[in-house]
Amino acid sequence: MSIIRTFIPTVQFEQPWGNYLLDKLVETTAPEAISWLPQTLGWKIIFTALIFYTCYKAYLAYKKYKRNVYRRNALAWIKHYQTDEEWFYRQLPSLLRKTAITAFDRAHVTSLMGNDWEKWLDAQCKQSEFSSRCSTQLHQLAFSPDFNLTPQEKIVLVQQISTWIKFHRRQHD
After folding, report:
1. Which keywords describe this protein according to UniProt (predicted)?
2. What is the CA radius of gyration of the chain?
3. CA dihedral sign, ordered 139, 142, 146, 149
4. Gap between the terminal Cα atoms of the chain
5. Residues with Cβ < 8 Å from 140, sequence gap 6 or more?
6. Using one digit for the tens of pLDDT, what is the confidence trace for 112-145?
7. Domain that holds residue 122
8. Is residue 95 a contact partner of residue 77, using CB atoms and an 8 Å limit?
9. Is this structure's pTM higher than 0.85?
10. Nearest 5 degrees, angle CA 156-CA 167-CA 77?
11. What's the number of domains the chain is made of?
């Protein structure tokens, strides 16, 4: 095995080389970096309070998300099973009642029937119009053996129920 040696020429300049005035110049050291952290107690208190406020708001948003899981489940059920068959429309009144029982006082919700139920639904959600647009349809679907909704009535009913589920307000909302 032979070792190959390469010759790297080094360049040496004769003294004095360059500007002779710079010969005596000494480079100064750079000062220490200035910290970006706040230096005074007031800023530390403000940042700490801001962190706690942000955590508190995130906690409230998480609680609201968990509180509204029943809404998302009901809307997902409607979206998943939406069809033009009779069984789907027969399930809508019980879905609406289950959603209302989850959100409000069970004893009060179960005592409501007919027009009182529709008026109560309208009172809990300003965007819904059960008593004017879907009058007696919920009762008819829940208890009547006849199923005679027009395609327009079906669309309005599903729209009203979805709107109520999305926008009803509970006592502490």
Report:
1. Membrane, Transmembrane, Transmembrane helix
2. 37
3. positive
4. 85
5. 146
6. 988 899 999 999 998 988 888 888 888 888 888 8
7. 69-167
8. yes
9. no
10. 65
11. 1
